[in-house]
């Protein structure tokens, strides 16, 4: 939805904030890099494999898997135009706030794409995720 809003010149966060002024019946979800975990990004494939035709599910699942890569590409194009060797800090690499789980982490896919594109200076900050769990990036420790 965030991508569609942006295509139409609508700020998705402004739209969500306006909807959140309702006195009831609305739960606020903010746009992120993607969907992570062991179920939400994977389970749609079980339905697709066992069903004849689910084009909306297929399209949306593919879009969510591609989202971290697309956002990384856009960011890299923007920052590399201003800095030949950009340094990027990825804040939060767990699948969601308050989690140290990394299965299908969109933040890690985002960072991997940045690295592949040429961003050699990547680090991450996440209080709940250890350096050992993410060996391909340096961890920025608290207070540094």
UniProtKB/TrEMBL annotation:
Record-linked Pfam families: UDPG_MGDP_dh
A single BP term in Gene Ontology: polysaccharide biosynthetic process
This protein's name: UDP-glucose/GDP-mannose dehydrogenase dimerisation domain-containing protein
Molecular function terms, GO-annotated: NAD binding; oxidoreductase activity, acting on the CH-CH group of donors, NAD or NADP as acceptor; oxidoreductase activity, acting on the CH-OH group of donors, NAD or NADP as acceptor
Record domain UDP-glucose/GDP-mannose dehydrogenase dimerisation: where: 1-55
InterPro entries the record matches: 6-PGluconate_DH-like_C_sf, UDP-Glc/GDP-Man, UDP-Glc/GDP-Man_DH_dimer, UDP_ManNAc/GlcNAc_DH
Record-linked Gene3D superfamilies: NAD(P)-binding Rossmann-like Domain
Family membership: Belongs to the UDP-glucose/GDP-mannose dehydrogenase family.
Lineage of producing organism: Eukaryota, Fungi, Dikarya, Ascomycota, Pezizomycotina
Ranges in coiled-coil conformation: none
Source species, domain of life: Eukaryota
SUPFAM superfamilies linked to this entry: 6-phosphogluconate dehydrogenase C-terminal domain-like
């Amino acid at each position: 939805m965030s991508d569609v809003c942006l295509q139409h010149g609508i700020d998705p966060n402004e739209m969500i904030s306006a909807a959140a002024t309702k006195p009831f019946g609305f739960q606020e979800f903010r746009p992120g890099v993607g969907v992570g975990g062991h179920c939400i990004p994977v389970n749609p494939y079980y339905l697709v494999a066992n069903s004849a035709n689910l084009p909306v599910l297929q399209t949306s699942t593919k879009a969510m898997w591609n989202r971290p890569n697309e956002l990384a590409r856009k960011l890299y194009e923007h920052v590399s135009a201003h800095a030949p060797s950009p340094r990027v800090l990825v804040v939060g690499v767990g699948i969601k706030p308050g989690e140290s789980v990394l299965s299908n982490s969109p933040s890690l896919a985002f960072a991997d794409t940045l690295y592949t594109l040429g961003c050699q200076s990547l680090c991450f900050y996440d209080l709940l995720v250890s350096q050992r769990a993410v060996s391909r990036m340096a961890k920025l420790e608290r207070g540094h």
